[in-house]
Every structure is written in C-alpha cells, then in structure tokens.
Amino acid sequence: MEFKFDVSDIFPSSIVEVNPSLIPPGFAGDRRGLSNVVAKVAEVVNAMGDASAAAQGLSNPITSAERLRKADQTVYLLVDRDAKGGKGVVTGMLKTGKKSLYVFDRDGQHHHVSPPCVLDFYVHESRQRTGLGKQLFEHMLKKENVEPIKLAIDRPSDKLLSFMDKHYGLQTPMRQMNNYVVFDGFFPELQSDVNGVAMENEIKQPANGLQTYTGPLGRYGAPRPPCSMGQIIHNQTSIQSNESAGPQIASQ
Q1: Which of 52, 101, 60 shows the shortest CA–CA distance to 76?
Q2: CA 92 from chain center: how many Å?
Q3: Report field, pTM of the whole predicted structure over 0.85
Q4: Predicted confidence band at 214 (pLDDT cuts at 50, 70, 90)?
Q5: Which residues are registered as beta bridge partners of 121?
Q6: Could you give the domains of the chain?
Q7: Which end of the chain is flanked by fewer CB atoms within 10 Å, N or C?
Q8: Taking 90 as the threshold, does the pLDDT of residue 224 lie above it?
Q9: pLDDT digit string (tens) for 147-163?
C-alpha cells in the first residue's frame, strides 16, 4: 500500500513493531518531529486496518490507531523499503495481544485463559502467495517466543485457517462461543505417574496463561459426564457409555 510520504523514512526495517505509543522504532527527533511521525504511523495503521476489514468483508475495521492506543497490543508492519523508487510501501500487517478468555476443550471442560492471540492478519492482495505472510508470522512467533499451537485466533477467515494448516499443520480447529479458535495442543496435558497413569490429584500445568487447576479428591474425583455446552460447541452428540449404564436388556 502506497502513501504520500516516504514510508522508508519512518520505518527503518522490513518488519517494524508498533506499540500503543505509535512511535516507530529508532525514532530520534524533537517534539514537533515526534508529532509528525506519530500522525504518519497512525495513518498507516488506519489504512492497513481498513484494507484488512475490506478483505474480510467486515463493516468496521478491527485495527485502528485509536484502538491500538487504548490496548496492550502490538501491530507488526511488513515494509518494502525499496519499492516506489525508495519511498517504500507497506505490504502486510499482523496484530497480536493477550486476551482473557473462557474456552472449552474437546472433553467439554472449560478453561480461563490469557493466551497470546492473533487479532488481525492481512497481506496486500498484490503480495499474497509470495511467502511474505509466512515471513511476517514467523517474525511474530520469534519475537513473542510462542509456538503456533499455543495461539488463540480471533474470528479467523477460511484463508487464515488454510494458512495455519499449510505452514504449521494445525487442523480441526476448536471453534469457541466467543468466536476464537484454538487447536489440539493448546491445552496443557495431565501429569502421569511412573507407570503412565494419570494421577488422581492432578495439577494442570499453566500454559498460555492457563490458570492452574487442582483436580478434586476422593469421591468428588469420580469421572463426570461430558459438559453439554462443550458438546454443543464442538458438535458432539452425548453418548452414554455401556460400561456405566447399568444392566442391559438384550433384545429378542
């Protein structure tokens, strides 16, 4: 995406991180210069947010300078500094941030989590299918020190889900009631004893901001039936186990 000003003058590298201050990395100048550069960064963020919303068919943008100022989030911008005779263009945008969420796993158990989230992701139509999206995503993963499987994604498009499948092998997404999506491996695994048997007094290890949970003891530790809400979310049908259903009457 082109702008009237020189993009390469305010963004010193091919991928830049913009925080709520809207001050680009490496800025050095007086107060007047700061006000000018912040206004330009805001224009870029707004334009990329509008383009992303249009590409997704949304009536309102998810990303804007005003929203970014009010949240603890990061916008990663992909910049081609050599384009347009050295003035540069912005070719992609990825927004991340942590959110407090309630999510269900495949067993219907709910978890209160605060994971890193992908909130918006867009690559300009003229630069798609060139590897730039993967480059931008990989930069974010390295910077935030997170694995793809540990991310929650807000309202992912089919194109983004295909991207996660193609590059990271993440399939069969678990869609949540809050419109987020997580994948198998997002939730922590139960600890086991030396014989490989899950311990009765189990502690689920924190991951992605998952709250520590201590399993019930004694008679309260008996298996519980699947959560109907979780079954609804994951399109599962409640099936009663023959082992726990008591005596069965054989048909004649």
Answers
A1: 52
A2: 16
A3: no
A4: very low
A5: 94
A6: 7-233 (3.40.630.30)
A7: C
A8: no
A9: 999 999 999 999 999 99
Going by the annotation, the residues of the binding site for acetyl-CoA are 121-134, 157-166
Cα(12)–Cα(203) distance, integer angstroms: 46
Question: Counting every residue, how long is the chain?
Answer: 252
- Non-local (6+) Cβ contacts of 7 within 8 A are 44, 79, 81, 87, 88, 89, 90
Q: Classify each residue of 175-210 as buried b or exposed e, where b means 16 or more C-beta atoms within 10 Å of its C-beta.
A: ebeeebbbbeebbbeeeeeeeeeeeeeeebeebbbb
Residue stretches of the annotated binding site: 121-134, 157-166
Share of the chain above pLDDT 70, in %: 75
Distance of CA 46 to the CA centre of its chain: 20
pLDDT in tens, 118-135: 999 999 999 988 999 999
Q: Please give the Cα distance from 182 to 104 (Å, whole number).
A: 9
Instruction: Categorise residue 172: left if φ over 0, alpha if ψ from -120 to 50, beta otherwise.
Output: left
List of long-range contacts for 157-161, beta carbons under 8 Å, 24+ apart: 157/56, 160/118, 160/121
Could you tell me if 226 and 212 are in contact, meaning their C-beta atoms sit under 8 angstroms apart?
A: no
* Phi then psi dihedrals of residue 153, to 5 deg: -120, 130
